[in-house]
Design a protein that fits this description.
Layout lengths: L5 E3 L2 E12 L8 H4 L11 E10 L5 E4 L20 H7 L9 E3 L5 H4 L15 E5 H5 L3 H8 L6 E4 L3 E4 L2 E5 L8 E5 L2 E3 L8 H4 L11 H17 L3 E3 L7 E3 L1
Parallel strand pairs: 4-5, 5-6, 6-7, 11-12
Antiparallel strand pairs: 1-2, 2-3, 3-4, 8-9, 9-10, 10-11, 12-13
């Protein structure tokens, strides 16, 4: 467990490093093409794949995102599988059955594949799985068959901004995907793919080539970051080398 937990607004937040590595050849492109207009050099982009464990003052456990999954997961064509999420949880003293709430920021394979085990069973058998309605409605057949069908009975489908556990709220931030959501716990914001590269903190208008709606993603990113800066919030990012960014 390379990253240490921090306490934010009375919640213990543990970054779980599921994997580190570049994108595979299936989707890798030169960095200036990935973030057009950014001025980034043409060099390998090494992503860190972070999930987050929230432990409330009363011991309730919430997991944000489930990582890239195993060798045969939907992420296997491009991400450095297998992910180590379950080992990271064990290092934090948590078994999958202990988790009460799982929030999926969106259904891209590097954020959601770990919701099932290698043999297709629910990985977090006792958890409610929180997903935005718009994200579910836009899911492809492969995602529905491989990830959603096995956990259908556990789904809590929400619309917009909702409190999903005591003190834990989700906020719809559509753009990267139709139902992308961020997660707030007090002064902490777990941003999913709202921000993918540090260059977007300096210029939220920098597009990401794999955003579903680049204009909407840029607009929402600018609005959310402005609000979070005004609150002096702490970001918990999915793909930065260091998980926490203090605004």
């Amino acid at each position: 467990m390379p990253h240490q937990p921090i306490i934010v607004s009375g919640v213990e937040v543990t970054p779980l490093c599921d994997a580190v590595g570049p994108m595979g050849a299936a989707i890798r492109r030169p960095l200036p093409e990935m973030f057009p207009g950014s001025g980034l050099p043409d060099e390998p982009w090494v992503l860190h794949f972070h999930c987050y464990l929230l432990r409330s003052a009363t011991g309730r456990l919430t997991l944000v995102d489930t990582g890239i999954g195993g060798h045969g997961s939907l992420a296997a064509s491009w991400a450095p599988v297998p992910g180590t999420l379950l080992g990271e949880l064990a290092a934090a003293g948590v078994a999958p059955a202990d988790v009460e709430t799982v929030v999926l920021t969106h259904l891209h394979s590097d954020h959601a594949s770990g919701v099932v085990t290698d043999d297709g069973r629910p990985a977090f058998e006792n958890a409610r799985l929180v997903l935005q309605r718009a994200e579910l409605d836009a899911a492809t057949d492969g995602t529905l068959d491989r990830l959603i069908a096995p956990v259908k009975a556990q789904l809590q489908v929400v619309e917009g901004d909702v409190e999903v556990a005591p003190g834990v709220h989700v906020h719809l931030t559509a753009g990267h995907t139709p139902g992308h959501q961020i997660v707030r716990a007090g002064d902490l914001a777990m941003t999913g793919d709202l921000v993918l590269h540090p260059v977007q903190l300096d210029d939220p208008g920098v597009h990401y080539c794999y955003d579903d709606d680049r204009e909407a993603a840029a607009r929402v990113r600018a609005e959310v970051l402005e609000r979070l800066r005004a609150e002096r919030a702490v970001l918990a990012t999915s793909h930065f080398s260091e998980p926490f960014v203090r605004l």
